[in-house]
């Protein structure tokens, strides 16, 4: 049989959660398969689950295809593998294709958007209309089903052919290795999602109960404290604007004037506006005009409505109207507020850099910054409580509820891994977000993640200082190479420098500061400024490499990584400080992409391949940034201990083979194990 490319699209009937079209919900059912063999079939073929002969024909085509093409291929692969269909050729995802071709420029990746973009067969609206009406694909007339699915298959095939023209031209041929890696990783991620993660619901419920208790205690304290700070003024703890008034004792009253002073927005060329040349005194005077102070108030019961906030009008015949009228005396609040002439709030001086349109920011990062400089114990406790309450609310809704929702009929958590969300190619995840799952005992959610095997272990393998080693390799920084080979701990070094310059810091918290200059961040405190000077004075190769990247972006509007991945920066210019306008992204993207979008996926691919070759029961169940998590059968712990680190380290050699990536600085890994994902200990 001649080699061919098989284009596939599946339609699913959703009988369970409408937002969950995965095969892990047993209520969902396959409705139809549409396919076309490019160059061999004259038109798309639609096969239904009851057409056994048609399914077997499709199975043969799938096994013998040189390429399987699909849009959002991970979805189709999951269903095909659940039904026992295996693809014999390479997988190509048209969504990944477009993501790579976009070169980090935001662009809609839906099939309908790509069809419009390329001017090919348009999708029909029939299915969307049916779903909006609460129907399924199978509820459509059979001729409409075939027409709709045929349109999708043709659109995917035509988009694929248009994309291949771009990949094969002079500007796009170098992108093919990156595309191939992402598509290969897509196939592996499908199996990781299918494997799922075992969850101890008793532990999860206990963690949730502990969170809920603490949440209620914090809410009670903050309500009492805000009442003391603001008098009887009602404060919504969930309102950033109202909490800004509590924290900073002022309220923004002239947003337009404030925007004018701060020069929010862009000029006619689309560039950031410059701050006017005002003296410091003039600037402060102008800024003060935008705000008014907040004062404590006392709530007095409205005499008109007696605190009800409304009253009923009477008809001419003496009957009472059914609907109440809002009291005009108190505007429906039930109380009239009397100014006590006493300054309210914590009276913390805001920084103009932290200002927002509804008042000064009260987000976690801002409040954490204020905490470091707060010397009043009560203010400190109040700020800590706000931060903690916000975190608990986020963790309960995003993680605990996300975990519960993600557990399917097989009692396993099946999270989603997304390859086309971040600009760098770094994975993101959803339902729940495993990439940001909290660590440590402060939010012990990871304790609920356990092995599915009786007596099994969760083994985690982490790359050691991956970004630092990759940056040193890309910049060919001899100092980094020397320090790595001598076992130098860069995070401990960072903590030492910060501490010596008046900002006591331990190794763990120092990690954020370590990578700030590496990724083009800016310094803030005097200690951070001192660290920046020492960093670039010490690692001259990094500084020179950053300069080269910026020059490349300004000159060509594009940055090309050592592996061939490309990032476009249209309109990039040199700012008044002499740096490229998008400096942070320009120096950040190459490190992030090579480290977490190339090295890590290669390591995961090699490890999954090895596990399959050895026919092990253990399986990779998660990858977070620069780490891999393996649910390990008790009889295979020693095997995983041997092959796991070897496969992840082999990724560097594989990157050299595929992309010509220099092996200037060798990689290293660390490995731990435990009965759950939180309580891990290093291997002996």
What does this structure look like?
Helix 14 (466-475) crosses helix 20 and helix 20 (583-613) packs across helix 21. A hairpin with a 2-residue loop joins strand 13 (355-356) and strand 14 (359-360). 46% of the residues lie in helices and 15% in strands. The longest helix is centred in the last third of the chain and has 31 residues, at 583-613. The mean pLDDT is 90. It starts with a strand and ends with a strand. The chain is of the alpha+beta class and 684 residues long. The chain has 21 helices and 25 strands. The protein has a five-stranded mixed beta sheet with strand order 3-2-1-4-5, with helices on both faces. It folds into four domains: 5-195, 2-Layer Sandwich (Nucleotidyltransferase, domain 5), CATH 3.30.420; 226-376, no CATH class; 396-465 and 594-682, Alpha-Beta Plaits; 467-590, DNA polymerase, domain 1. The radius of gyration is 30 Å and the shape is globular.
Overall, the morphology is: globular
Number of helix segments? 21
The order of strands across the largest sheet is 3-2-1-4-5
SS-based class? alpha+beta
CATH homologous group name of the largest domain: Ribonuclease H-like superfamily/Ribonuclease H
> At the third CATH level, what is the topology name of the largest domain?
Nucleotidyltransferase, domain 5
Helix content: 40-55%
Strand content: 15-25%
Task: Detail the poorly predicted runs.
Answer: none
Give the total of domains: 4
């Amino acid at each position: 049989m001649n080699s061919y490319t098989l284009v596939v699209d599946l339609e699913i009937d959703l009988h369970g959660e409408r937002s969950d079209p995965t095969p892990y919900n047993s209520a969902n059912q396959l409705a139809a398969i549409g396919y076309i063999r490019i160059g061999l079939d004259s038109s798309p073929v639609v096969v239904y689950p009851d057409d056994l002969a048609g399914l077997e024909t499709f199975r043969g085509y799938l096994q013998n295809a040189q390429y399987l093409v699909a849009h959002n291929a991970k979805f189709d692969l999951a269903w095909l593998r659940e039904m026992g269909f295996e693809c014999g050729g390479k997988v190509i995802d048209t969504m990944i294709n477009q993501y790579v071709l976009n070169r980090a420029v935001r662009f809609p990746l839906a099939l309908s958007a790509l069809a419009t973009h390329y001017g090919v067969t348009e999708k029909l609206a029939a299915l969307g209309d049916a779903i909006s009406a609460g129907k399924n694909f199978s509820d459509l007339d059979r001729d409409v089903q075939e027409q709709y699915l045929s349109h999708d298959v043709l659109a995917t095939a035509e988009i694929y052919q248009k994309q291949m023209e771009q990949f094969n031209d002079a500007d796009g041929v170098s992108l093919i290795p990156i595309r191939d890696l992402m598509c290969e990783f897509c196939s592996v991620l499908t199996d990781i999602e299918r494997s799922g993660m075992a969850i101890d619901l008793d532990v999860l419920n206990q963690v949730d109960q502990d969170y809920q208790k603490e949440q209620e205690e914090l809410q009670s304290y903050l309500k009492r404290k805000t009442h003391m700070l603001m008098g009887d003024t009602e404060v919504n703890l969930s309102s950033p604007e109202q909490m800004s008034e509590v924290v900073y004792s002022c309220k923004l009253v002239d947003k337009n004037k404030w925007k004018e002073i701060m020069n929010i927005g862009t000029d006619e060329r689309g560039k950031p506006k410059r701050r006017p040349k005002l003296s410091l005194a003039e600037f402060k005077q102008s800024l003060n005009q935008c705000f008014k102070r907040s004062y404590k108030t006392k709530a007095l019961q409205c005499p008109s409505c007696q605190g009800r906030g409304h009253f009923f009008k009477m008809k001419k015949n003496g009957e009472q109207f059914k609907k109440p009228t809002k009291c005009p005396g108190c505007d429906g609040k039930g109380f009239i507020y009397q100014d006590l002439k006493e300054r309210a709030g914590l009276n913390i001086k805001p920084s103009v850099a932290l200002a927002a349109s509804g008042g000064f920011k009260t987000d976690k990062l801002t409040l954490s910054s204020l905490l470091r400089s707060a010397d009043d114990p009560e203010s400190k406790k109040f700020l800590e409580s706000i931060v903690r309450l916000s975190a608990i609310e986020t963790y309960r809704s995003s993680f605990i509820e996300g975990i519960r929702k993600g557990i399917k009929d097989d009692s396993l958590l099946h999270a989603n891994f997304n390859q086309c969300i971040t600009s760098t190619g770094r994975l993101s995840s959803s339902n729940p977000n495993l990439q940001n799952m909290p660590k440590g005992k402060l939010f012990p959610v990871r304790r609920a993640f356990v092995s599915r095997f009786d007596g099994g272990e969760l083994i985690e393998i982490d790359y050691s200082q991956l970004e630092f080693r990759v940056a040193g390799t890309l910049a060919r920084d001899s100092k980094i190479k020397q320090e790595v080979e001598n076992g130098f701990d860069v995070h401990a070094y960072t903590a030492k420098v910060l501490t010596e310059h008046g900002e006591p810091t331990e190794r763990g918290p120092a990690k954020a500061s370590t990578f700030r200059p590496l990724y083009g961040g800016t310094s803030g405190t005097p200690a951070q400024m001192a660290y920046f000077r020492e960093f670039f004075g010490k690692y001259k190769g990094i500084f020179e490499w950053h300069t080269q990247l910026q020059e490349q972006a300004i000159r060509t509007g594009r940055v090309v990584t050592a592996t061939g991945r490309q990032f476009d920066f249209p309109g990039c210019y040199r700012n008044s400080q002499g740096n490229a306008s998008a400096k942070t992204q320009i120096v950040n993207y190459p490190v992030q992409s090579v480290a977490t979008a190339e090295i890590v996926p290669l390591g995961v691919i090699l490890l999954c391949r090895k596990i399959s070759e050895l026919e092990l029961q253990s399986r990779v169940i998660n990858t977070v940034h620069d780490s891999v998590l393996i649910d390990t059968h008790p009889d295979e712990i020693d095997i995983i201990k041997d092959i796991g680190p070897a496969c992840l380290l082999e990724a560097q050699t594989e990157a050299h083979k595929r992309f010509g990536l220099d092996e200037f600085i060798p990689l290293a890994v660390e490995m731990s194990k435990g009965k759950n994902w939180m309580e891990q200990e290093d291997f002996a």
